[in-house]
Design goal:
The complex is a heterodimer of chains A (294) and B (194). Chain A has 294 residues and is α/β, with parallel strands linked by helices. Chain A contains nine helices and 13 strands. By secondary structure, chain B is α/β, with parallel strands linked by helices. Classes of the chains: A alpha/beta (294), B alpha/beta (194).
């Protein structure tokens, strides 16, 4: 039996929760068909999370491509189909893949599994980021290097902790409804062991409460690492500093919880628990356009 | 003896000749290993100039692997106050960091603060900066030694509001932290030369 999972018309970090709610009651070996036919828009988080979702299924899932040419074309430019074809049984009309670097996407979906991949990501983003962050988002030129550092540290989270490969993507777009400004978003998603299991390997003893939410609080707020080395845990601390400096937002989902460093322009919840389970870690960093008044 | 280590060259020699960014811990560990191999040949007191001029990006993880872990081997962290049992430097090495951009400084300062370490960096126009964990008195003493070129405890005592014996303790602490060098005839700030 195949269960159809309906992907919403607009797929981002919020609406992806509805996908996970549909998956939650299903055993991992149940065949699913991810139906994106009516999806018209997807954020970098939405696309990378879909790839991570496929990794969580014991039975190879099927994916129905978007019907709208414009949407399918964008997903192709973002290299989604290039990696989806290795993870899903593909159905519907899939546009011909283009080579990476030929599109208007700031950083196409890129697999991250080892240190060399992080070098590749950082090298590619720097050539495009400087012009786009300064011209489109009015960010100070100093923000560009920090942006690449933030991207590097977010990707290293996969290399160091996930236990399996994941994906990263970066894009700028206009966040009309939520903010009325342009934003740049970094999405880094994996379906690895997640924060709780990663930190468990170094925690000799835990109190009564030890769950995904507490693991996220330890890692993000208290910079705890599974490594005993005092220098560890600086990656997420550095990301927090960068996000704070540029009035951005950091959100990390792992297991059944999600933690967010919420700026004044957003009304998100700092810590959400009892979400539908999803393995690994899904990191979303949002940096907004600087306005003249700021 | 003065060593000059171009980090861009070490990166290309030890990791990949196409890279110019210092990112990831494995890269940092390989570069630090390359630096330590060069330091291993030193038999006497050395000043090693670590040059970032040809380095693009430096992330926190790599800064920790290269800069902080290198200093941990040779320098006393803040607050140790001469705990010799904890620190036995393999060699009498001092470090001066050159070609450091603002974004490099951001990463380096963060990792130094995390481990209670400090270092001396030199800007392109030759100005020395003290970066990392230093208290106000240590900073004033270091600035005075830098300004004077060569200083004795008596010269520094008045600058920092201490008696001469306490000023000597303060200077010896800065020397163990490898921020100034001690010579028979006084103390010299790293980078200004005896």
């Amino acid at each position: 039996m195949t269960t159809v999972i309906n992907i919403p018309p607009s797929l981002d970090d919020r609406t992806f929760e509805s996908v996970l709610q549909q998956l939650a009651p299903l055993p991992p070996d149940e065949k699913v068909l991810i139906d994106t036919r009516h999806t018209r828009w997807a954020s970098p988080y939405g696309l990378t999370a879909l790839l991570a979702l496929a990794q969580t299924r014991a039975e190879r899932p099927a994916l129905y491509a978007p019907e709208a040419d414009e949407t399918a074309s964008y997903w192709a430019r973002a290299q989604f189909f290039r990696y989806a074809e290795g993870l899903f049984e593909m159905h519907g009309s899939v546009p011909r893949a283009r080579g990476a670097g030929e599109s208007d996407v700031l950083l196409e979906i890129t697999p991250v599994a080892k240190s060399e991949d992080v070098h590749e990501v950082v090298g590619r983003i720097q050539s495009k980021a400087q012009a786009i962050l300064a011209k489109e988002l009015n960010l100070d030129p100093r923000a560009t290097m920090g942006f690449a550092m933030t991207l590097s540290e977010a990707c290293q989270n996969i290399v160091e902790h996930a236990g399996r490969g994941g994906w990263v993507a970066v894009q700028t777009y206009r966040w009309q409804k939520r903010l009325g400004r342009r934003v740049v978003q970094i999405a880094v998603c994996d379906a690895g062991i997640g924060f709780r299991q990663s930190l468990e390997s170094a925690q000799a003893r835990r109190g009564d409460r030890w769950d995904d939410a507490m693991a996220l609080e330890d890692a993000v707020i208290r910079s705890v690492s599974r490594f005993r080395d005092a220098g560890r845990g600086q990656g997420l601390a550095g990301i927090r500093r960068y996000v704070g400096r540029w009035d951005g937002k950091l959100s990390i989902r792992s297991g059944t919880a999600r933690i967010a460093i919420v700026p004044s322009w957003d009304e998100d919840i700092p810590l959400e628990e009892q979400l539908p389970p999803f393995p690994g870690a899904q990191v979303l960093i949002t940096i907004p356009e600087r306005t003249a008044a700021r | 003896m003065i060593n000059h280590i171009d980090l861009g060259t070490v990166l290309r020699r030890t990791v990949c000749d196409l890279y110019s960014d210092l990112v990831t811990r494995p890269t940092g560990a390989a570069v630090r290993s390359g630096i330590e191999q060069q330091l291993a040949d030193a038999k006497e007191r050395t000043l090693t100039v670590i040059d970032f001029t040809h380095v693009g990006l430096l992330d926190y993880s790599c800064a920790d692997e290269i800069v902080a872990k290198l200093l941990v081997s040779y320098c006393e962290p803040a607050g140790e106050r001469g705990n010799i049992a904890r620190l036995v430097p393999p060699r009498d090495c001092y470090f001066l960091f050159k070609g450091v951009s603002d974004s490099h400084l951001d990463a380096i300062d963060a990792v130094l603060q995390r481990r209670g370490l400090a270092l001396v960096a030199q800007t392109d126009d030759g100005i020395s900066l003290l970066i990392g964990t230093v208290d106000d008195r240590e900073r004033r003493a270091w600035e005075a030694v830098t300004r004077l070129g060569r200083a004795m405890p008596a010269d520094i005592a008045g600058e920092v509001g201490l008696e001469e014996p306490q000023a000597e303790i303060l200077l010896n602490g800065l020397s163990r932290r490898r921020l100034i060098m001690r010579f028979d005839e006084g103390y010299v700030a790293v980078g200004t030369g005896p």
